[in-house]
Amino acid sequence: MIINHPLLGPRDVAEFVYLGDAALIDRPDWQAPDAQAQFHAYGYLRDNPAGAHRELWYHEQGDRSWLVVTRDTVTHEISKVELARDVARARGRSK
Amino acid sequence: MRYSGFRVLKEGLTGNKGWGKAWREPDPKPEYDIVIIGGGGHGLATAFYLAKEFGLTNVAVLEKGWLGSGNIGRNTTIIRSNYMLPGNEPFYEFSLKLWENLEQETNYNAMVSQRSILNLFHTDGQRDAFVRRANAMLLAGADAELADAAQLRQELPFLDFDNARFPIKGGLFQRRGGTVRHDAVAWGYARAADSRGVDIIQNCEVTGFQIENGTCTGVETSRGPIRAKKVAMCVAGSSGRVAAMAGMRLPIESHVLQAFVTEGLKPVLPGVVTFGAGHFYVSQSDKGGLVFGGDIDGYNSYAQRGNLPVVEDVCEGGMAIMPMIGRARLLRSWGGIMDMSMDGSPFIDKTHIDGLYFNGGWCYGGFKATPASGFCYAHLLAKDEPHPTATELRLDRFITGNMIDEKGMGNQPNLH
Predict the structure, then answer these.
(1) What is the ipTM of this complex?
(2) What is the pTM of this model?
(3) Domain count, chain A
(4) Residue B299 at interface with chain A, using a CB cutoff of 8 Å
(5) Is the separation of the CB atoms in A66 and A5 below 8 Å?
(6) Which residue range forms the structural domain that includes residue A80?
(7) Measured between alpha carbons, how far is B137 from B131 in angstroms, rounded to an integer?
(8) CATH at residue A73
(9) By CB distance 3.0 to 4.6 Å, which of B246, B289, B359, B396 could disulfide with B261?
(10) Which of B241, B248, B252, B253 would best serve as a mutation to test chain A binding (most A beta carbons within 10 A)?
(11) Is the Cβ–Cβ distance between B377 and B50 less than 8 Å?
């Protein structure tokens, strides 16, 4: 697989480390009344879809940026690559 | 029909006209006591032990494709019970004991070959860890034997003992480990379950669950609805997809694991050997090909094929311990889809929906577990309580804090 890095262009997948579902960006509120259930779901339960999957990749052998890659888990085709920073900011995660 | 040497002789003398089919091809009935989703090794084993051990034969096994089309036909055929943790080791040792009698129980030649498995170690620290593991194995009634480098030089002289980076200091033997002809396991269980009255229905895809007031009462399939008192998921690799139809999210990611086989060689490798400093394991099939594999690719996948960096990594592992492997030409490689669980250990449990049961999360260790998985799942389905060796394989173990994390990697499925 080749990941088309938004800043660096096409890079081999061997340069990256995989973390998992991009839902991990949305860390639950630790003060919520059901925080334990929320953190169980956040830490351990996964949608695991067959098809389009948004996921976090870390460019460890490159610029050390975190990316949100949209990839089809059935064909391995990558349809979209974004900087995780931009995704998190768009979701109101940044100050 | 019972298979025997006498039968082979008789059929040989009469033109092999009397063999017949190994199992029937029944149409699905409208209702069963138990419906098992998934006609792979584990599902067929479950059906066999339900019939044999618990006398339940009003059972159907639903398979989307043909028998043995999934991971039972895609693995590297190794059996062993060299685990360490109390939640795991008694279960896998139970499985190995069932392997030892499998062919007699099913009246089917599965070519169970206890040719030994050897885990190499390369440092003093690793030796200490293997001594600890060996003691845990002995405590659970398994066999374990520590070998030093001098003994290994006698037994396996072709290993690269003086490798500058990964010198071989010794290894942990489990002599009762070995290999089994994987397809024959599915066929043997299918034939033995079928002959006891279990309906094995191929080309029948489950498309949904009938759930009324929190109770599962049957399944929708491509061949019509089938009602059942109990529905048993047994679809490791596709657990996420099937469970989603029941509205469940699982502590599982699906990953692809690649396997490789070389051209046929004369006998060179007596048992199974694994690399201790990287991830590589190899055995020689009875046809002569070296069968080997290593790490999963490491990203979510349902594709049954992987990428080239892992091919390189696996072959480097092989070259590090066994340079002669470099002279063999790679014949085929393929991929299988694994349920990678959050702690690297499997699940055999009820779900929060009454009448719906779950078996999955086998990571890349499902083949060796086939008999015990079937036995313990059958026990759970028949008695509604877990088998004594499978009490810790629970779906809720992450919220209760009872993870079985054999490698100590935490909740990161691609590291197990």
Answers:
(1) 0.95
(2) 0.96
(3) 1
(4) yes
(5) no
(6) 2-26+38-90
(7) 10
(8) 3.30.2270.10
(9) B289
(10) B253
(11) no
